[in-house]
Design brief:
Blueprint (H helix, E strand, L loop, with lengths): L7 E5 L3 H12 L5 E6 L35 E4 L3 E5 L4 E4 L4 E3 L2 E4 L3 E3 L8 E2 L4 H11 L5 E4 L3 H12 L4 E6 L4 H4 L1 H13 L3 E5 L2 E6 L2 E6 L4 E3 L2 E4 L3 E3 L15 E2 L5 E3 L2 E3 L4 E5 L2 E3 L4 H17 L11 E6 L2 E6 L9 E4 L7 E6 L5 E6 L5 H6 L6
Length: 380
Amino acid sequence: MSTGTLRRVVVVGNGIAGLTAADTLREAGFDGELTIVGDERHPAYSRPALSKALLLDGDDMSSHELPPAGHGASELLGVRATGLDLDRRLVSLDDGTALPYDRVVLATGSRARRLSDLPGEVTLRGLDDALSLRGRLATGPSVVVVGGGPLGMEIASGCLAGGCKVTLVSQGAPLILQLGPYLADVFIKAALGQGLTVVETAAARLEGSDGSTRVVLDEGGVLEAEVILTAAGDVPNTEWLAESGLIAKGAIPVDERGLVRPDVAAVGDLAAFPTPQGLRRIPLWSSAIEQAKVAARALVRGDEAPPLRFQPYFWTEQFGVSLKAVGNLPVEGEPEYVDGGPGGGPALMRWSHEDGTGDAVALNYRIPIPRLRRMTRAAT
């Protein structure tokens, strides 16, 4: 469908949101000029693999690779977008050029939130970060990970499996804010059983001198290690859009189809979209994919495209435990066991709500995601 005003589409961002948007534009019938801008020099890759399999891949190192793209777009890699002119419909690039568009997809994602400007602070967000960390772990250094969320725990798990002595610093119990106390306890027990040292603190900061970096706890303790790695959340990459007027509270609000306006879509980690809890960013791999599919179709079909009906899906693998969850985490209280039971073996669980719906979780349990989704629905 290359008609009238829809001849050129620019996708800014070559992560999974940008890649999915480009593929979906083609599936929706757009056969015009398609350009993807990516500030990394690498083709699109699987970001979840960076903190999981890639740290332990051995010589293969292919867990992060995605199938070759089939969208046929012109890919400008290693180039950064610096501005968006909504009136003239131009995307400015750091090489001094500008790309005209009829429709544009904003998918520049987010970056790791740093706790300092110290060169000794290591973060893991992109492929280059993962490859650098992988190289440093080869000698089995001591490691301190600051951050008790899923990313911090996954990294700590990979470091332990690689033979490192690992201490994890967490505000409160690890994973409790993301998963709730019941599920967090499963992972904490597994982590402690494998030798992870957990330090709970009210707050932590990084200090450095003479080229060294250390973690200073709010209570006064100090932790030192050969590698200091922080996993303290993310920051949307919206600075290049500062003059566009599209940013609100650090993100880009979109409608139920992922559109800011009929010719502009925003998808992935920088987008805040409607949920039952209000406009929210949901920086999950699955969320980026679903948003991109809906928004790309809306750019081509307008109001004829179906709105987003996103149901959160989260998964993690760490310390020998795998979790798949459909629904809204964290969960409170104890679950109903659909299959299996407490004790660490494979288990299928459900947390029920008053309206009959629920949240479904599989622990070390092989189950297709569609079946897990069906478990969240009210009985009819």
